[in-house]
Amino acid sequence: MRRLIPAVALLTLACGGPAPDAPPPEAPPADTVTVGERVPFPFATLIETAPVPLLAGGEIGVSAAVCGGCHTDIAAEWQASTHAQAMADGQYLAELAKPNNPRWLCLSCHRPLQAQAAVRQQPGSLLLGAHERSVGALAAKANPGHQPALIHEAITCATCHVRVASDGRGTILGPRGDTTSPHRVTVDRPGLHGVCERCHTPGTGHLTPSFACWFETHGELAAGPQRDRDCVDCHMPTATRPLAAGGPVRTTRRHTWAGGGVPKRFADYSTLLARGWKPGITVQVDRPEAEGAGWRVAITLENTHGGHAVPTGDPERHLRIIARTGSHRWQQHLGQVWDWGDDATGRPARRLTDTRLRPGERRTLVAHLPARPAADVVVEVAHVRLSPENLRHARGATLDAELKALRPQAQAVVAELERHYPTFTWIHRTRWAPGAATPIIVPLAELLAESAQPRALTTLDATLGTGVAATP
Questions:
Q1: Among 174, 198, 210, 350, which is most buried by a count of CB atoms within 10 Å?
Q2: What pLDDT, in 10s, does the model give residues 257-291?
Q3: Using an 8 Å Cβ cutoff, are 78 and 381 in contact?
Q4: Which residues, at least 6 apart from 342, have a Cβ–Cβ distance to it below 8 Å?
């Protein structure tokens, strides 16, 4: 799922790894090691949970269906979030289908509970075939607490809110503990506010030469002007309502997690603004100025809302800034470009360029277009999650039985991914008509409605352009 651009591979998903058609490298002799020894980071260990005791006797399970029986509003928000869709994501399924994909490790963030996995995955769990060029495979030690239905909940309520207490029974983590709850509650505000880091900034370094699966979102936040805030402050806005049905009205947090604004399903565009999403950047396009036989167009982008870089996380994500008039277009790419290394030779992956907008950064780009007196000058910005080039690679993935079980018609969905899976969102468009004193700025709601329309691959090529170029 990578496209090579003169010896440079662009990542299709969060993690590096060989292209889907690459043969597995020959493995040197391997020793049996544990998960904790080979991958010494918290995300590699699945989260242990247990049924939660009720104060009046009995206990409750940890599924979202149980939680939603009382926390109805929050459960509805979660159901529409990217977290709830993390195991049905067509792009992710295509990534898992790669021959050399370390599936057990990638699943650690997309279904993080031990109860969601058939095999035990704890620091002392054994790995087979692990060496410096492979993270190996989990030894098949059955998990007696496996609950197969939970896997479809993906990143579910218990991921953040349920842990095992010292008595071996479950407990619900809450931020304040200032209500009368029918179940046990442990107050742990720092734990709840810090849980995002487990997967959104999991570690540093290379697990194999080509496997540098590291997001840097928390580091970007810590280095920026909003360092005193955390993920919850922006991505879980407050709401005044009952925490549970029939309870008192209070200040709670919304569980919508709209993220970067490219949802997992086209239908979810209709609720994106209501769920609190707004672009991380603002864009200003100056009036085109005559320059020789053409136009000079100044485009200023500012990271006004993102406490981290924009885009952040998955290195495949980038901004495409397009200026066009008539049939002529100018285009720039703000994002990361990586050489993803080679496990066969041991060449390590490395980032070649990074042109993303840092927190608070303001940057002006200049587009040069030929003058077309009767044509508008249009500048538009797209947040791209999956480029048309890499979409083509993803469509060719062949899913096995395990992956096909994760969503209805999974293989058909991947084969026509562009019909089911949004790959980009328009976040800005300015139109300067010839001789106009002021521009037309298209409302965000109109851009989202346009983004919600599935496009054929050829249309994606025409819309976004092919290939990318890093801005100096």
A1: 210
A2: 998 999 999 999 999 999 999 999 999 999 999 99
A3: no
A4: 209, 210
Higher-confidence residue of 246 and 28: namely 246
Give residue 20's pLDDT.
42
- Crossing angle (nearest 10°) for helices 457-464 and 388-395: 160
Whether the per-residue pLDDT at 465 is higher than 80: the answer is no
Please tell me the predicted confidence (pLDDT) of residue 252.
95
**Nearby residues of 54 by Cβ (< 8 Å), 6 or more positions away:** 60, 182, 183, 184
DSSP strand pairing (170-174 vs 185-187): parallel
| Pick from 372, 243, 245, 379: nearest CA to 300 | 379
Q: What is the pTM of this model?
A: 0.90
Compute the distance between CA of residue 297 and CA of residue 30 in angstroms, rounded to an integer.
Answer: 58
How far apart, in whole angstroms, are the C-alpha atoms of residue 293 and residue 91?
Answer: 44
- What's residue 180's pLDDT? 83
Q: How far apart are CA 206 and CA 199, in angstroms?
A: 16
Distance CA 191, CA 160 (A): 8
Distance CA 81, CA 255 (A): 8
- Other beta carbons within 10 angstroms of residue 153's beta carbon come to 24
| Residue 349 tokens, joined | 């992956």
Half-sphere exposure of 31 (CA within 13 A, CB side): 5
